[in-house]
Amino acid sequence: MDLSQERFYGAKSEPIDSVDMERSCPTGVFQWQILRVAHGDTVDLYQVLYDETTDHDCLNSDDGAAAYLAHASSFGEIHGDFSGTAAEPLGADQSNTSLIVDDDWMVKVYRKLEPGVNPDVELLSAIGDCPNVAGVRGHVSYELNGKPYTLAMMQQRIKDGKDGFDLAQATEDFGDLACELGKATRTVHDHLARAFGTETVTMASIGASLNQHLDELLPQAPQLAELEDTIRAFYHQLSGTDVEIQRIHGDLHLGQTLRTGDRWYLIDFEGEPARPLEQRVLPDHRARDIAGMVRSIGYVAALSERDQEWEQAIVDKYLSGYGPIDRDLLAAYVIDKAAYEVVYEANNRPELVDVPLRAITTLTQG
């Protein structure tokens, strides 16, 4: 099997040096496998369901989905309830693969495996009473070298949910929905704070963290060099009393939301996939999540050819729903997110790099 051709494989920019079998388990006519994949100086673990007849992963097929559910207890330890009678692939997955189980449940199979409890499982298991998330029913873990690796999670299926980004693009008058989404974001943050507690840090430490991230981004996108001084000056002017940080979503944007007939749901609590797990579980300020949503609204405006007035009106509605937040600190996090987007667009969609660059210029010039 050529992993580099599989949709879920996340290191396509460099060649694979070697693939070794970490573990294998017969799964009907297929083979469930954990593969140790070396590329450059990195070694990653990937979970696959191998079909010898096609020489491809088959999890995103009807037979593969059914086989995974039927044999999950052979892969590792079951926590909670991971049972079901029928499974089919959701389709359209990328970094992970989702399966629909008995119409009422969703199984997310994690492809790239990292040591520790996946934040999706950890956070959602603790706030299952929150009305704006899909509660966890059970998960499967595998122990390797004394550390748990989360293989899959079963949670409530959000039926008839509409992708937030698609909905915002299709809805001219998105203001009321944005306000409700702000309220939902606040509710989730409040539940996370109660479940995991908060910490107090200085504003200077927040500024240092933002500057450090800029240090990492600058070599990756020359377009940022002209804005470096103004960005650092903005971070430097952050002031005020100590602030609270807590566990957050970590990668929040409109595409991480679903809207049903009566409410918003926040989904995919894994954090930024490009960051290692030990960083994704660190507490941060709520403004990071809010900034991600602000920038997502900016992309809706840009890709839908809506003007800045529409974008600002929707952002204002979202923030009014969320409630009080330090606007200067939020602006700093928005700049940080936009700087990350500059790197992404420069390397993947250079025709869109001006979208985050304009956002940075607008904020730093007041």
Automatic annotation (TrEMBL):
<feature type="domain" description="Aminoglycoside phosphotransferase">
    <location>
        <begin position="88"/>
        <end position="296"/>
    </location>
</feature>
<dbReference type="InterPro" id="IPR002575">
    <property type="entry name" value="Aminoglycoside_PTrfase"/>
</dbReference>
<protein>
    <submittedName>
        <fullName>Phosphotransferase</fullName>
    </submittedName>
</protein>
<dbReference type="InterPro" id="IPR011009">
    <property type="entry name" value="Kinase-like_dom_sf"/>
</dbReference>
<dbReference type="Pfam" id="PF01636">
    <property type="entry name" value="APH"/>
</dbReference>
